[in-house]
Amino acid sequence: MAERKAVASDDIPSYLLLSSNFSITLKGNMAYRNKTYIAFDGDKDMHYYRLMTAWSENERFSLNFSNAHDLNTARDSSQEESIKAQLRERFANSKLLIVLIGENTKYLTKFVKWEIETAIRLDLPIIGVNLNGSRKKDELCPPAMRETLAVYVPYKEKIVSHAAVHWPASHEQYRKEGKSGDFWYVESVYKDLGL
């Protein structure tokens, strides 16, 4: 059974806490990857995705990411394999997966499930962003990521940005320790962020 544990900032070496930019460079085999892949329900949750891109473009917010969806456009919406080929190109440049978890995300098996499974195969750090405001994994979590190493946060710019900066190092550390399962940030992290 997966060990469940809250994540505190002190779990991360202090030299990694200095970065506040979403486009950080990772060590090891992912050093060339600098994009963030965002998986979401394109029919129901597009406005949440668009707001995240607006956060990234607004200098008043700390969230800053290089979006893997900007790399190319999946033009042929009728051909699943051609779309997946385009998505594989996006994954090739991605260092992190953010999954926007809405009411219907767990039922999406054609692309979102495949995107999560691909990120797991590539050992990308995964952040589950709960659109319902939950700070932990809940019943809306897609089955494909229920047992994998991931951190869960609510849909708020400050904590999403914090996780994007700090979770990759924690993911690497926990992977080395053989840990898996769901993680979340302790109350003091939210308090420090003013949340």
Fold and architecture overview:
The structure is a single chain. It is globular and about 45 Å long. Residues 8-31 and 68-76 have low confidence and may be disordered. It is an alpha/beta fold and 195 residues long. It has a single domain, classed as 3-Layer(aba) Sandwich (Rossmann fold). The chain has a six-stranded parallel β-sheet, sandwiched between helices. The chain has helices at 46-57, 80-92, 112-121, 157-176, 187-192; strands spanning 5-7, 35-39, 94-101, 126-130, 150-154, 182-185. The longest helix is centred in the C-terminal third of the chain and has 20 residues, at 157-176.
How would you characterize the largest beta sheet? 6 strands, parallel
- Measured between the Cα atoms of the first and last residue, the distance is 31 Å
Q: Strand-and-helix sequence, N→C?
A: EEHHEHEEHEH
The CATH top-level class label: Alpha Beta
Low-confidence spans? 8-31, 68-76
Number of helices: 5
Number of spatially distinct domains: 1
Strand content: 15-25%
CATH architecture classification:
3-Layer(aba) Sandwich
Helical content, roughly?
A: 25-40%
Shape: globular
Query: What's the alpha carbon Rg, rounded to whole Å?
Result: 16 Å
Structure at a glance:
Helices cover 31% and strands 15% of the residues.
List the topology elements.
Layout: E1 5-7, E2 35-39, H1 46-57, H2 80-92, E3 94-101, H3 112-121, E4 126-130, E5 150-154, H4 157-176, E6 182-185, H5 187-192
Parallel strand pairs: 1-6, 2-3, 3-4, 4-5, 5-6
